[in-house]
Design brief:
Blueprint (H helix, E strand, L loop, with lengths): L5 H37 L4 H16 L1 E13 L5 E12 L11 H10 L3 E3 L20 E8 L2 E11 L7 H47 L10 E8 L7 E7 L5 E8 L3 H19 L5 H15 L6 E9 L4 E7 L4 E5 L2 E5 L17 E4 L5 E5 L1 H4 L10 H11 L5 H16 L8 E8 L1
Antiparallel strand pairs: 1-2, 1-5, 3-4, 4-5, 6-15, 7-8, 8-9, 9-10, 10-13, 11-12, 11-14, 14-15
């Protein structure tokens, strides 16, 4: 049995007391660090500020040279596994002009699989990351996951403990606590930034929709002996349907209606391009078929192969009452006259797909009381709860019942009928129509 002298016993007790005081001091420092971090990151919703704060506090807490927070997004790969897409990266340094470090895909992949702290004492010899090309100045790494409900949302990594020391278990524990305390706040900050970006996009979409609305005619033209009314209702905030009236140099008017494939912003951008092309060609006082042929060639060179436009282009001469038209793959236009209803169709495919396309044209003379209805397929293809389409016959019936009303009243009746048919069903396609009536 080994006996201790009073001096040795006092020495041992003093050493133990010093150890306990050291542990207590470290615990106080850790609590101070965590309390300071909580106040700092809770005061900001900007993700960059939050992450820079986390990094600076983490570097101080574990005495590391540099650190990085990488936010990740989970996506299913073709093989069924997960891969990481770095969304935001922020780095902080207390190491002067040393080169910057970064969290590699290897680290993020390891975190996806393991979701626990990772300590690498020597990046050059660690067997778990053989073949990984580390930065030359990366010696050691301590990396912890940012988890929300067991879902990896980010990685906090610090590099190279100062003084050539190694990260220990206390460093690992403290950094894990920092990550646990920060994960939700970091995610909230990211969501806030994403919401701000989304709001900006929404505002841009709103302004784009407003611009598009001004591209369409604000009022019907005054044409002696005629009434014209047109309307377009987009299925989304912006649409790919287009209608226009344009005064020609010889006193006639062009009346056009087109339907760009697709919906939303891409279709609306193409629609604006189509409008510019048609207006430019109309100003040259060409025949409708030539307008369609030239427009097709221009669109074939300026639009993606998968995009196309169906189009009905006509010129109305109020002196001769002749409506000359060319139909490029568009829905048939209906001419309501004393003898019944006729379809105004010509040979010609959709615009923007086949450069060698040759459109044809035809003409009809409008008598007093005649009505012409040009429309997009969003009218006839509107469906009810049973998936029944509105169809051409309902269109013909509605217009026939209101033939003696004004063009605006006929247009209202048609849109009211389409709305009643759809009832509570969502509008799947842009709905556009133009009514021409000889008084």
């Amino acid at each position: 049995m080994v006996s201790h002298t009073p001096m040795q016993q006092n020495h041992d007790e003093l050493a133990e007391l010093r150890r306990e005081v050291g542990q207590l001091r470290r615990a106080v420092q850790e609590l101070s660090t965590l309390n300071d971090l909580s106040r700092a990151i809770g005061a900001s919703l900007h993700s960059d500020e939050v992450m820079q704060t986390i990094i600076s506090r983490s570097l101080k807490a574990v005495n590391a040279e540099q650190g990085v927070v990488t936010l990740v997004d989970r996506h299913r790969s073709n093989s069924g596994g997960f891969h990481a897409n770095t969304l935001v990266r922020a780095a902080g340094s207390s190491a002067g002009n040393r080169g910057s470090f970064h969290a590699t895909q290897a680290l993020i992949g390891w975190m996806h699989l393991n979701k626990k702290p990772l300590s690498i004492a020597d990046t050059a010899t660690d067997a778990r990351f053989t073949g990984v090309a580390w930065d030359a100045n990366t010696r050691s790494v301590l990396c912890v996951p940012l988890l929300i409900k067991s879902e990896l949302t980010g990685v906090l990594a610090v590099y190279n403990k100062k003084g050539g020391q190694q990260f220990d278990a206390d460093d690992e524990r403290l950094l894990a606590i920092i990550a646990s305390q920060s994960a939700q706040i970091v995610d909230n900050a990211r969501l806030y930034e994403e919401e701000k970006a989304l709001s900006k996009i929404r505002e841009q979409v709103r302004l784009t929709a407003e611009i598009q609305a001004h591209l369409l005619p604000r009022m019907a033209p005054r044409i002696e002996g005629y009434e014209i009314a047109g309307r377009s209702v987009a299925a989304q905030e912006m649409g790919g349907d287009y209608f226009d009236y344009y005064a020609l140099p010889d006193g006639a008017w062009s009346v056009a209606l087109g339907d760009v494939s697709g919906k939303g912003l891409p279709a609306s951008l193409l629609m604006a391009n189509v409008q510019g092309v048609i207006r430019m060609l109309s100003s040259l006082n060409m025949e409708p078929a030539e307008v369609m042929n030239r427009a097709n060639r221009l669109l074939c060179h300026s639009t993606p192969p998968a995009k196309f436009v169906t189009f009905f282009f006509s010129t109305l001469d109020p002196a001769s009452h002749r409506l000359t038209y060319s139909n490029a793959g568009h829905t048939p236009t209906f001419h309501f006259h004393g003898g019944g209803v006729s379809r105004l169709v010509t040979r010609g495919a959709v615009l923007g797909m086949i450069e060698t396309l040759v459109c044809q044209q035809d003409a009809v003379t409008l008598a007093p009381g005649d009505v012409v209805v040009i429309y997009s397929d969003g009218v006839t293809e509107a469906v009810d709860a049973a998936e029944n389409e509105f169809g051409e016959q309902r269109l013909i019936d509605v217009v026939s019942r209101h033939r003696h009303a004004s063009a605006a009243e006929i247009l209202d009746a048609l849109f009211d009928a389409v709305d009643a048919h759809q009832f509570n069903q969502p509008q799947y396609d842009d709905t556009t129509a133009v009514v021409i009536r000889r008084t």
